[in-house]
Amino acid sequence: MNLRSRAFESTAFFSRASNFQLHGTNIFSGGDVLNNQENVPNYTNPVRLILFHCALDALVDSNRRYDPPRCEPQTRDEIIQEIIDWVNNDTSPPIMWLRGSAGCGKSAICQTIAELFGQKKTLIASFFFSRAAGSSSSSNGDCLIPTIIFQLRQSLPETRPFIDAEIRKNPIIFTRARGVQMASLFVHPLQQRSILRFFKNLLGQKVRLIVLDGWDECQDPEVQCDLLRILADAVSTLSRKVRILIASRPEAHITHVFETYPTFQRLNMRQINLDEDHGASQDILHFIRDKIRQIRETHPLRNYLNPSWPSDAAVNFLVSKASPQFILASTVMTYISDLEDRPDARLDAIINALSGSQEPAIDNPFENLDKVYRFIFTQVKARYRQYVWCILGGIHGNIGHKLPFPIPCPNFFEIFFKLRPGEVNLMLNPLLSLLSIPKDPVLLQSATNGQSRVVD
């Protein structure tokens, strides 16, 4: 049967109806499903067109990100204050890179900063990249600029007429190059005389902040680099009343853009390296003690815990293994706090696992942590994996057996495997969030402070 005539037959029961509308409806007729979809862009409505290209799941207060990591009270105070001072200083560089290895607390700091400046009404926008958020848009770099523009309309209503006028003039703007989108919908509106007057008169000395977390979680490294260059060019043309905080692992391609793109050189970008945060151990100790206090006050089995639990030795052991990676401390305390098991038994299982004991744990306390490391290891190119596993095996063997000589430097492995100069660094580049690769011996930055995690 002709499909066109079949469609007419299947909707014949509306033939005499008038003045009605169907929205987002599935019509079932004779086993067929006729769709009346609304998930197409509305080219006459600027807000709907922006929303169609947004990643609302990546916002600081997104429901999909419910209960995101944030800094516990009295932790990371020095880092947070340094960021606040950078934002509020008129002479500060407009971009800051918050970098650090996997699990060192970048997202918690960004969440805390975004919430803090949101409360002060000085947050322009936020975007939390994530491959694990349950939404592909949260890791889609093409959603970044539309999402920033949507929030710009909300945080600075004075920009709305200029943004909306540009979208009405060019309704396919979000199919244009990312640089064109940023220039037309972000830079141009903020450069209008009325907006500059708003910055000067109404805000006084206040500045506006954009928080961009998990940059390395953006799906495509080429898109990451393109967006970094676009942001640098955009902010370089604006008033110093705009600040951008970017957080990521120190991936090779990200570092390369920061070090070589001329605009970043002119901007004299500020950096904070969380792997060099010497106050992390004290913050982790405070975090663990606070979580233990909560267990002793609220856990269903709290009355069965020994009054001296846990020992200072056990707490100090956890701190030594976790520092400076907060993700291990958080993972451990979440595991110990489980309401359906004894906290003391779970702490024993954790200590056994971290000390290399062969005693079986109750279950895998590091399941979430392993997911992070598993993904990072998948970034090693297939043709290099055999070499990389051998190199990592050498590092692990040296640490595990405390051999009386340093871990070989990249040059040693290049000679051993008969590789060309620089190839070992190239192979290990995807693991820069786990390894420090100086010219001298390779250093491990694992979240277990030398304790190996096995990733299948």
TrEMBL record:
The lineage of its organism: Eukaryota, Fungi, Dikarya, Basidiomycota, Agaricomycotina. InterPro entries: NPHP3-like_N (IPR056884), P-loop_NTPase (IPR027417). Residues 82-249 form the Nephrocystin 3-like N-terminal domain. The keyword Nucleotide-binding does not apply. Gene3D superfamilies: P-loop containing nucleotide triphosphate hydrolases (3.40.50.300). Keywords: Repeat. This is Nephrocystin 3-like N-terminal domain-containing protein. It comes from the Eukaryota. The keyword Iron does not apply.
